[in-house]
Design a protein that fits this description.
Elements (H helix, E strand, L loop, with lengths): L4 E8 L8 H15 L2 E9 L9 H12 L6 E4 L2 H4 L3 H13 L3 E4 L4 E2 L3 H34 L16 H11 L1
Parallel strand pairs: 1-2, 1-3, 3-4
Antiparallel strand pairs: 4-5
């Protein structure tokens, strides 16, 4: 399949942190420019986990591919884990793109789904992305258990001298009513 027009998809998990989708997008734009590809549109999800199959920008992009409301040859992502972290979701999404005649390309993974080798690598990288997510969840749960054992509770610390915030007091009063 010849690629001339692409849409870019970027995702960051956290809002208001060190994560900036522009890091992904600028690299993707340069990649397209070097190949003479035209970027039709950019889809960006902010503060959404890759484990979620439903994401606002991803849903719009997939609908555009499925219904043909936007003309593009390929979806270009910075890295496969930005597109998803579940093997099942990744496989279903790529299959849906393929059925719509749209290629899937992951820039840093050097992954192009138009060949059998590319499809094999896609499945391998999908499994790795899901595995990484499971390891992160395991470490977080372990850390929370350890903190709880030491008497540290997650969440905002309340200064005993100041007492609960006005919002907390308001919520408590609503519960008692």
């Amino acid at each position: 399949m010849e690629v001339n027009t692409v849409v870019l998809y970027a995702r960051v998990s956290k809002l208001n942190s060190h994560q900036d989708p522009e890091v992904q997008l600028s690299a993707l734009r340069q990649y397209c420019s070097a190949r003479g590809w035209t970027v039709v549109q950019e889809f960006v999800d902010h503060g959404v986990s890759g484990a979620k199959a439903k994401r606002p920008a991803l849903d719009k992009m997939m609908t555009a591919a499925r219904k043909g409301t936007l003309d593009f040859d390929a979806v270009l992502v910075w890295k496969i884990d930005r597109f998803g972290r579940s093997v099942q979701h990744l496989c279903n999404a790529v299959k849906e793109l393929d059925e719509a005649g749209v290629a899937f390309i992951s820039m840093t993974d050097n992954l192009d789904m138009s060949s059998p080798a590319g499809r094999f690598m896609f499945h391998m990288l999908s499994a790795v992305a899901e595995f990484e997510r499971a390891l992160m969840q395991e470490r977080i749960k372990s850390g929370l258990r350890h903190a709880k054992e030491k008497g540290h509770l997650p969440g905002p610390k309340i200064d005993p001298a100041k007492g609960p915030s006005r919002t907390t007091l308001w919520r408590r009063s609503k519960r008692q009513q």
